[in-house]
Design goal:
MgtE N-terminal fold; three-stranded mixed beta sheet; mainly alpha; CBS-domain; globular; about 475 residues; Tetracycline Repressor, domain 2; homodimer; 23 helices
């Protein structure tokens, strides 16, 4: 729309294929599947990152996927399983041999095993737990006792910690002497004698400081402790807000039970956004690889709600059948008022839902935002009222019709700004996700008000 | 809507206030501003993280913000400036004393200075560059030569690197001897003699390996080199897709020029999502602290486009004035068909826009997805056709009206599925952001097709 937004396009375009799966590579892989050449297939899959293999499995159709898995099944490892969309995991796991599956889960971090198990059926869960060694199984089972979508499910058990009174030298000697350090870690967590985390020290600071420096003197300024029961969306928010790289997770007594790293928080942030964007459009979660029936089922509820609201709007129209029969122009113009209100309402609504998600819409500014949205509706309403008044006059030659549509436009756009802000705020306060339900309410309001204002004024003025 | 989505609510609710600014704290801060008590204000701001101070400045009104800055101006540091929304930076910078500003920018990383400068006016840019020391100024100016929204703008100059032939011992001795290590770093980048990055080694691996181990043997499996001209959205995608923590940035000759860390990539991912979600709703970028006029201007273009499409739809209705004058029930029912089509189209569209953004909708599956969306439209269309056929029959006692609305519903929902997928795919291919423009096209199609199918069939069957 606006100029400044178009300036981005060239760059986006240049690089838009960066990191997308290469069409030719996919074609070559499918050819290897067609010819049943397992060795050729293995070689062509070799250079792909686990996340790209997961994407490939999601993008090809179910028939090709089945054949590919039969040829390539043994190479499926824990990383690919972690990257795979939930909807495909059961399908893929059911094709793997018990040995392949056992090997795959044994090499995974505890948080990834938990993530894998969550969405599986009981017998598949048990099979996987059975493949784990005793301490890992206990760790995974403990994580599963935390609620779904909590920090406790997201955290890994593997942490590196040190007593708060240690020096840099002691930390280095400990780290260099320890055989079993986690694959990825960036901080040493300092804990007090009761195992409560008190600070983070980065490995970079430990590397760069004299051996005699107490660890306490080189701790990070920003230190956030995450309760194990915290909602994962809030965890992601904290990482993004405070630029955390890793954060300790504690139980209700404040004792260290695990650690969350930023890459997992980033994945959650991405999922939360996906959820918001899809919910705003009335689409349940799912993936492109879902089949027609499951997709239809997910789309249906929102369309059913929309049908009810559309019928409500029709009931309003039905009250004015006589007016419409007399002046058919009303039927021609009335969808314009409703449509403009719906769009303006969706604009306000989206801004409000997004501001609630980023914790930018609070008690401190909610009234100011509501007032602003109403004023924006008023200004745009007046502009479009003038335009539509002229259109009404020129098209149908009736000044009265012009006044009526102009007045209805102003009313509906102000109401749109008000409803678009107030409805998500109220839903949030009563504990309903505003992204999920606001759309239906707001468009009901703008449809009903739009038709009622336009037809009601017309009936009063024109008849 | 669906049951599984409601199960989340309790947890979300419990923690929904986590990390949000505390209402009482904000009130106490505003009270200190009212009484002009600078010392009290300083004490109350003290515990807040820079990001929260930035949020506070965004949430209070312009008058309070001005008074707060006059009392607290000297305490504004580089971190707060980096966290501040672009729209407020100029305002805040213009109140700071030159000394405060100079001190603030000197303590910032080069990437944050670049981020700060980008959106300022020329005279403010020069003032800030003037405060930097020579080498920093050159680094910032070089970064500014890269295009906006590119990896070159996002990267920091400060990197830690080592020749590829070094051992763990050599790396440790170098790191422990170096005075000027960056504040935050997690990897040592190995470079070849021509300064091209060849691998990453984590500090954890260096800590945990014997001194004689060559660094080459403990490099990370996943290693992505980012071209300095790459679009920042693709950079964020790569970090999320491949779980990168930091990645080297190279110039066109492949030589190392900087490094991007995951916290910056996460911030970009967040912004990209914000952009997508706002563009889908026809709202330009902006912030809650914007004034009425700038907000009105940003909302206007989309509403203007919507007015044109609504008038187009009205022109279709106008073709059938005679039919409507004869059977007024048509005017009552026609918005239902259009509204259902618009909603179904928005569902398909949102899924497609999102899948394009995550690189999940590619040449490999585009036809399958289009077919699926049309089939989903067909199945839902048939269900709602039956419902609306019955409603039409019962409400208006006319079987023919029931058949007509049923047929129009099926047609419009199939078209919605098709248009909702094809339009964003085509826009993406020709280099237009599908999130920006698809909505207008898709609802035009569903409005026009909906009114035309319903009124056309009615005219043919009923008159």
């Amino acid at each position: 729309m606006a100029d400044e937004e178009l300036t981005e396009t060239p760059e986006t375009e240049d690089e838009s294929e960066a990191y997308a799966l290469d069409r030719k590579a996919v074609a070559a892989i499918l050819y290897a599947v067609d010819t049943g050449d397992a060795e050729d297939l293995r070689q062509r899959m070799e250079p792909l990152h686990a996340a790209d293999i997961a994407d490939l499995l999601e993008q090809i159709n179910a028939y090709d996927r089945g054949r590919l898995l039969r040829l390539y099944g043994r190479e499926i490892d824990g990383e690919i399983l972690s990257e795979l969309d939930e909807t495909l995991r059961e399908e893929v796991i059911s094709v793997l041999s018990p040995e392949t599956l056992a090997e795959a889960v044994r090499e995974m971090d505890s948080d990834d095993v938990v993530d894998l198990l969550e969405d599986l059926e009981d017998h598949q869960q048990e099979a996987i737990l059975g493949h784990l060694e005793e301490p890992d199984r206990v760790a995974v089972q403990q994580s599963l006792t935390y609620p779904e979508y909590s920090a406790g499910r997201l955290m890994q058990r593997e942490v590196v910690l040190a007593p708060e009174h240690w020096t840099v030298g002691e930390a280095i000697d400990y780290l260099r002497g320890e055989d079993d350090l986690p694959e990825q870690f960036y901080h040493v967590i300092l804990v007090d004698p009761r195992h409560k985390p008190v600070a983070n020290v980065t490995l970079g600071k430990i590397m760069g400081s004299p051996r005699t420096t107490p660890l306490k003197e080189i701790t990070e300024d920003v230190f956030q402790v995450i309760p194990a029961t915290q909602y994962e969306g809030d965890v992601a928010y904290a990482f993004n807000q405070y630029h955390l790289i890793s954060a300790p997770v504690v139980d209700e007594d404040g004792r260290l039970v695990g650690m969350i790293t930023i890459d997992d928080a980033m994945a959650v942030l991405d999922e939360e956004h996906e959820e918001d964007i899809l919910r705003l459009a009335g689409v349940g979660e799912g993936s492109l690889s879902d089949r027609v029936i499951s997709t239809t089922k997910r789309r249906f509820p929102w369309l059913a709600v929309n049908l009810v609201t559309a019928v409500l709007a029709s009931l309003v129209i039905a009250q004015f059948e006589d007016a419409i029969a007399t002046v058919v122009a009303l039927a021609v113009l009335m969808p314009i008022v409703a449509s403009m209100g719906g769009n303006a309402g969706t604009q306000s609504l989206t801004v409000a839902v997004r501001a609630i998600a980023t914790k930018d819409l609070t008690g401190a500014n909610v009234w100011r935002v509501i007032r602003r949205e109403c004023l924006v509706g008023l200004v745009n309403g007046v502009i479009f009222a003038v335009v539509m008044g002229i259109v009404g006059l020129v098209w149908f030659g009736s000044p009265a019709l012009g006044y009526v549509i102009a007045a209805a436009m102003v009313i509906n756009l102000v109401v749109a700004g008000f409803a678009g802000t107030v409805i998500p705020v109220i839903l949030d306060r009563i504990g309903v996700d505003p992204a999920l339900a606001s759309g239906a309410f707001v468009t009901t309001v703008t449809d009903v008000v739009g038709f009622f204002a336009f037809l009601g004024l017309a009936a009063a003025v024109l008849l």
